[in-house]
Each structure stands twice: as structure tokens, then as C-alpha cells.
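so the lab meeting is tmrw and i was supposed to have these ready like two days ago... anyway. pasting both below. for each one the top line is the aa sequence and the line under it is the C-alpha cells. i havent really looked at them closely yet so no promises
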Amino acid sequence: MDVNLSVVIPAYNEQENVGALLERVGGALKQVEGGFEVIIVDDGSTDGMAGLLKEAMGKYPWLRVLRMGRNGGQSAAFDAGFKAARGRIIATIDADLQNDPEEIPRLLGMLDGYDMITGWRKDRQDTGFRRWQSRQANRIRNWISQETVNDSASSLKIYRRHCLEGLQLYTGMHRFFPTLVKMRGYSCLEVPVKHSPRFAGTPKYGFRNRALRAFVDLLAVRWMKKRYIRYDVSEVKAKD
């Protein structure tokens, strides 16, 4: 069945949030024209989330669940969700409800003339250290990758399907989606979005894998951006 919108949500050990998440997503998207589906990608959770999702599938006909064989990280979860999505437009949010699902319809209305909308958590509802850490990460990311994106790692994003078709992802690449999309020649608009405190539970990513690993990934993206093949070509006709 084709739908207009697919919402892809990676989730790892988010049993405290999944009930409220599904209720709010369903409420926010019920007026979307052309129908929608929500794909929860269970990234190898070890809590009770799998059972809650199984039960929720009987309640929400628009819900699909993918179960990763092992915890592979957000990039792998996004990749699996993108490949399974059936929508002409694909949206993404985090499972902890720091991204408000109610923002999705507003951003959909801004997609005219663009291939991708990326959310900017301009007023982040995090600890002081986490906000400082994010600011430094974005400054370094823009300096090395020669970008101007304020919040590349925000999960609240909207894509036209063609932006993602054939896109090869690697571990850690979820932090650089705006750059990867623009490298392919597509347009991207950054928009301030609401950011909320985590609904329940604790963050699953610490300083080491948010900063040190991200720096190594950034060097890879810089290399890819500089080496990306771009050219115009046309076939010469004998009668020209």
C-alpha cells in the first residue's frame, strides 16, 4: 500500500516512552493527506519495548515494527527504516519525545521548493553541559566540513524520497544527513523547531560516542565531500 508519509523512528530501550510516543504521533498525523505509516526500528532493545510494540500493532493499523538482529546504532536503524518506508515523503524523529511529533505537519508545509527540511533545536531543553557540547560539536563540524548547518544532528527531518534512494550509509553518518543530501545536488532548508525535555528514561549516548567517534566520522565526511564526483555530460549526435 502506498502512503504519502512514512515516519521512521529508531528506538533503543525506550519502553518508558513508546506508549506516549505512539499516541502523540497518531494524533499529530491523522489529518495528513494521502495517509501515513509509522516505522519503529527496534535497535536490538533488551527492555520490555518489543512486547509493548507487538501489542500496539493491534491497536494502530498504521504502525510497522522492524527488529534489528543486534544493536547497530542510529545510522543502521535509519538505513533499515528508509529502505522499508513506502511513503513519497519520509520524516524522522527520536523516540524520547524531545522532538515533538506535532512539528511534522508544520514542516511538511515548508517542503515546497526544497528536497529536505532539517530541524534546528535552537532552544535546546538539555543540561548546560549537553548544550555546550552540542554547540562545540556543530562549530567543529561546520569548520571541518565547510558547512553552515546549525544543528546537523537533530533527528527531526523531512525528506522527499528521492533524496535517500541509493544513499549509502556508514556507522555514524546520521549526524551528517544535511551534508550528504546536499552533496548529491539536492536542496536543504534548516528551520527552528521546538525541543522538549526527555519524556522519560535516560539518554543512551554518552560523551565518548557522541564526540570522539563523531570526530572520526567527520573526517570521513570531509574526505567524501572533497572527492565526490560531479560532472555534466551529454551525448553528441551525428546530425548536430
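ok protien two:
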Amino acid sequence: MKIYGVVGWKNAGKTGLMERLVAEITSRGLRVSTIKHAHHSFDVDHAGKDSFRHRSAGAQEVLLASRNRWALMHELRNEEEPPLSELLARLSPVDLVLVEGYKRDDHAKIEAFRAETGNSLIAVSDETIRAVASDTALELDCPVFDLDDTTAIADFVLTEVGL
């Protein structure tokens, strides 16, 4: 599987860019999966639901299935957070996996950047960032795309991964 990342500081436009890239790339007939890193605890089910009760009772994994989708929840229970490579191995084969976050990992990435956030660019000190998608003009040693030019960004990513 090919992998490409989208990174950036909070409120830089990462999730919107991911959403647009998934829609654009799948519209071209390619199969895409995503991985999203969260820096905080999260829950995909709710108190009182059967799956929540199973996890609360101590289940290591709970697989919730219906005719429309299935979801596997794995409780770490004091285990270390798994590396990206381990999570990638759990995915079914697709043409491209887009990864939001994991900015310290070695895979190629594009940085989402919004000037209004006041954050510095990650790209200036990270050679795994191959391009920047920005809402402002920038002078960098890598390609800079308009943050809203999804077609051009998708073309770049697909060329980068050989698709």
C-alpha cells in the first residue's frame, strides 16, 4: 500500500484537506483508507451502549458489526500506543492510505498551513514534508499549493506515490 501524510498545527486545515483529498482521489477510481492520530482520549461508542458495556467490563477488543459497517475497538489497557506501521498492517489493502498526523514518522507528507494561526512552518525543518498547502503565498524550497486547490494537491500526492 502507498502511504502519504497530511500534517500541520491545530486549526491549519488538515482535516478539511484530508476530506477533500479522499473525495477527489476516490472520484478517480482509486481506493483510499485513512488513519487519524489523536493526541487525546476519544470514544467511538457511548455509555449505555452494548459495545461500551463490553469494553467497560474489560474486553480487550470489541468488534461491532452491522450490514452497513463494522468497527473494531481495541483497548490498550496500559500498553504503549502502537506505531503507525502496526496500525497500517491492520488495514485491508487499498491503493492509498492518507495519514493525518504522525508528523514525526518517516513517510512523505504535505503540510497544511494557515497564516492566521500564527504557528511556524514545520516544513522548514522537516525533510519528510514534500510540499505545503497554504492560504498565503510562501517562499520555500518545496512546492507550495493553494490550500483549496484540491485537484493540484491530489495530482502531486498521486505522482509522489506513483499512482
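from a quick look at the 2nd one: Residues 14-27 form the longest helix (14 residues). The chain has one domain: 2-40+81-161. will dig more after coffe
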